[in-house]
Amino acid sequence: MSSTSDRRPIFVATHPRACSTAFERVFMTRPDALTCVHEPFGDAFYYGPERMSTRYDHDEAAREKSGYSEVRYDDVMGRILKEMFENDKTRVFIKDMAYYIVPPSGDRPSGPARSLDRHPNPVADSNPTLIPTSLLLLFHWTFLIRHPRKAIPSYYRCTIPPLNKKTGFDEFMPSEAGYVELRRLFEFLHAKGIIVEESKYDSEETRNSSGTMFRQMKGDSVSAWSGPDGDERLEQGPALSRQLENTPGPVKITVIDADDLLDDPEGTLRAYCEAVGVDFDPKMLKWDDDESQRTAKEAFEKWNGFHDDAIGSTELTPREHKAKTLTKEEEDKEWKEKYGQEGQKIIRETVDKNVADYEYLKKFALKPKKME
Q1: What's the pTM value of the predicted model, to 2 decimals?
Q2: Which of the chain's termini has less CB crowding within 10 Å, N or C?
């Protein structure tokens, strides 16, 4: 089981406009303990030769201008693994969109991304991602969610004037809402015993079921990486084998709801840090020094326009008043006033389509932890 000595990379899987960059900024205050990697798989998803998105399919100039037109999924994974292997002083912390690694078409992929297909892929028939199961086992998976009634209008705003001039996203694509992909990733990791409920975490049942599944997948992967039949193209095979051999078993399900984060930042982050084995310090809630601002601006500049609020922020404090839940009629009226009738219709349809997946994940959300 996971412990405070567990150094596997922390992966925060989320969807757009979930306050995830503000969440990430908290952990960027800890360069002594964490190396933060900001949304790395978007490079391959949007721009590279293995891209899953159709957004820039007919805009080669935009792909070239991005600087990521040749980035494949193994390039992204390679950067992450390099950080993991070469830095023994800090733990890797990744925040990224689930739909970058779970094809947003809703169909199960026929296999991993081609550039990653030399890695072992136990339980391949049920893996909904582009990442082989052997590599998924290397991460400590966590999840960040926000109600669609807040996230979807926020994302829509990024795709219309005037903000779209900065973001470069000139069309709202409902397939990028990200909830169904986040749920599919969660359900797969849960079904295979990679993440388990807290109530079952230390139980004999978990050790005999989820623990057994984890050990079987782990054993199959280690053998494939290190055995005589391992793919000779995979230079990192022996190192990956050793890394996974030393990886503890399942981790507790860890889901954060953005409303809890905004209402009680300290309590929510205490609970999260305890779950992932990071020492919490209240100083993590403030980043008003010049060095922190420079680091954030450099990290977030590739997604220009999406992170302006997070870049301009200097701390995370509780909001003064909890968000009021509007009626459906009030929401529609507000959206129509801001985005016009067509915008309101698109937002409403997208919100309604994603509520069930949000509510499913919400059931697993951590409760904020009070100071003892």
Answers
A1: 0.93
A2: C
